[in-house]
Structures are given as C-alpha cells and as structure tokens.
C-alpha cells in the first residue's frame, strides 16, 4: 500500500501543469479507453468498492437498488448529456449553466451546489479510507483520515486534472484486480469450483436461506431473519425501492465530477464511447459485489453495520487468506477512495476558482492567479471534508446517496432542460434549482432530526428524495420559463440560441426573407 501511495504522488510530480486547461481538463487530450477507465475509477469510490457489498450484506435484496440506480444513471448520461457537453467544450458544469442561461446567479448557485456535493461525497470517501488505513496500519481513525488527505492533496495541488486522470487510470487497474482476484480463492474455500465466482455463489446463497453457514447451522430465528433479508421486500417496500433507484439514476447523471470528465476528451465521439467503456469497467465490479456480500454472510452471518462497512476486508480474513490478500485488497479500496476524492475536490475547487473567482469576481485575473486560487481552495475543501469525516453521520453509501439526491434535484434538471428545451431560461432554471436544493436540504435535516416523513420509511427519504422532488423541479423550470419568456432580453435569447446550436451541431440560421444575410445576428430557435 505504501508503494502504491508513492506511485500516486510520483505521477502527480511527473504530470505537473502550469496552465488552466491542463489543470482543469487535462488539456482535453484523453482517449476513450483512458477516459473510460478514469470515469470508472472516479465512480468506483469507497462507496462502490466497500459500501455496495456492505449494503447487500445488511439489506440483502433491497441493496440491489444501489447497483441498478448507479449503473442506470450512465445510460442517462450517454443518451442526454455526454456528447452535448463535449461540444460545449469549456471547463465546468456551472460554466455551462451560466453561459447557457446568460446569468451569473445561475452560475454561482450551480457552483455552490457543486461545492456542497463535493464536500458531502468526499466525506464518505474519507470514512472508507480511514477504516482501511486503520485496518492495515493500526492507525487511529483520525490519523488515517489526515494521512490519506495528505497523499491526495499532494498530487492534486501539483498536477491538477492531468495527474488526477493518469492516477485514476492506474487506480482502476489496482482496484479492479484487488477486488476480483481474492474472489477465486474465497469461493473455493466456501465450496465453489473457483472458475467464475460471479456464477458460482448461488448454491452458497441457497444454503444461507436454509441457515447453513461456515460456523454451523443458525438458530431458527436467525435463519428466518437472514431469509427475510435476502427475499424481495424483506427490508423496504416497493415505493422505497423505486425512489432509491430513481434518485441514484438522476443523481449519477447530475454529478459534476462525472460530467466534467467529458470536457477532458478530444471530441464528442470519444465522449460517448468513453461512457460505454466506463460502463464495462464499472460493471466488472458491480457484478462481483453480491459475491462478497453472500460470502460475508457465510462466514459472519450476524454482523452489523460495523462489519458491513469493511465486509470486503473481513470476508477474506474470515477465510484465512493471509495478509498478502488482505493487503492487496485494502490497497484497491484505498485506490478507490483516493481516486474519487481527487475528482470531487477538483470539481469543487474548479467551481470556486473558475466560476466564482475568475468569471464573476475577477474576470480580469491571469491564468497564474486563477491557478493559485484553485490550489488554495483545493486545500481548503480538503480541510472541510476532513472535519466532517472525523464524525461521519451515516454508513458510507448512505452519505453518498445524499450527495446524489442533491445532484439529481438541482444539477440534472437544469442541465437536461438547458440542452434539450430551447425555451428554458434563467428564471426557470433558478426556480427549479432553488426548489430542488431547498427540498433536498429539508429532507436531510428531517432525516437527521429523525422526522418520520423524511426517514427511511417516509415519503421523501433523505437518500431517495428525487422521485418526488426532481420531476417537480423539471415542471417548475418549464412553467416559470414559459411564464417569464417575455422578460428574457433579445441579447440573452441570442446567446442561448447560439449555445444550443453548438450543443446540437446545428448550422447557422438562414436570414429572414427579404433581409440581407447577417451571420452575426442568429435568429432564435
């Protein structure tokens, strides 16, 4: 693990950049395979690497909602967003929204939401990283969080997105091999053939349903509880499942640190193909997560949340695989957490430095000044995340789900309508984003205060609020945009029209009948 951490910092030094394009979008020179691997690494955080197996361990069948929702979100990205954002071709999502709606208020609100998403999501990653370091090095949780923060901040401050992308490609190879290799030994120790674990754990699961585990038969009550967990609707009902899946789908498609990856590639064709390759790479891990959950139940059927968050580490330990397997697996988990934290902090810092400082507060600043502000706020965000991570409020995947709810209720509706609905304007975008952001924060506060309406079994759960909030955000955007249509200036309308034509690769408009050709004054769509 120490050697890999040294590699990450070394790659940062070798990828040192001195211009804004290199720092924010890696010079827009990443290919489809490299960007696909970086997307997968960016995506497969500690929540995916450790949290999904833990949720399946605790919640059984209901935990599949996380896999379905997170994977389905990439279909939305592929169909609705990826190619269009690459054609826009700048640096950040707040920049796209601010330019599309010709409004600094929209830009600043989107940047603020991006920062909040980055902080919330990264706090969950540091919880996973802290657990891993404590497991391997015997460090305290607090020391582990500070140690990991030092590593990721070091290579980010030096290299920006160029180093982050290269490190994410390396980290993907580490994390996917670390995740999958031990499965062959684990499945053999549990009685399988060890050829393809993802297709061999069915008999073990069937045995669990009958109360057969490694330590001997379970009691009648324990067997009944285990069976209930692994059957549909044993935990959670149909509404909660659909709400969770929907929230995670739109949240995935609305995450700024995922969207920003489409700015790093050469053209829109590579943007689309990199999503497909990202799905392939992500699918390898999600195909294997249920195996860990079932094997974890086989060796430790009565473990609680403490066991769940480190299930991928405790399962091989229970199987007596030895320190080499556990260490390599922990290195993969560390790589997963670090790669996602790097992408999140980069998205958050770019929102502050590029969209707040360089675009709104000091548009006359130089590249050097913007880079300095970006590096300063990268460190500031890291400190804020550490403070939150030292006292995490929930399980890793639950914290992440709240970040997804914020993205799905605010960024996703504004971006989709900004791309596909020509009448959407700044008034509608602000109405939808304020509604989505306010309701998500209300749901999170209600969840913390243990109000039933916002709890796990309520109508608007904090982790699954988008099923109700997101469609209303779309509706508000459309209604307010139409009501306020006459308030949009001709100049703003023309700028929006020009961006829409660029997004959809449309030709310049023809001059009106009887008028002289004027390519500098495009007619509105």
Automatic annotation (TrEMBL):
InterPro entries reported in the protein's UniProt record: Na/Glc_symporter_sf, Na/solute_symporter, Na/solute_symporter_VC_2705, Sodium:Solute_Symporter
UniProt keyword terms in alphabetical order: Membrane, Transmembrane, Transmembrane helix, Transport
Matching Pfam families: SSF (PF00474)
UniProt-listed PROSITE patterns: NA_SOLUT_SYMP_3 (PS50283)
Membrane topology: Multi-pass membrane protein
Annotated coiled-coil segments of the chain: none
Record GO terms (molecular function): transmembrane transporter activity
Subcellular location(s) per record: Membrane
UniProt xrefs under Gene3D superfamilies: Sodium/glucose cotransporter
Major localisation: membrane
Signal sequence interval, chain numbering: none
Gene Ontology cellular component terms for the protein in this record: plasma membrane
Regions that span the bilayer: 64-83, 104-123, 129-158, 170-187, 238-263, 275-295, 323-349, 370-390, 396-420, 427-448, 460-480
NCBIfam families: Na_symport_lg
Family: Belongs to the sodium:solute symporter (SSF) (TC 2.A.21) family.
Name under which the protein is recorded: Cation acetate symporter
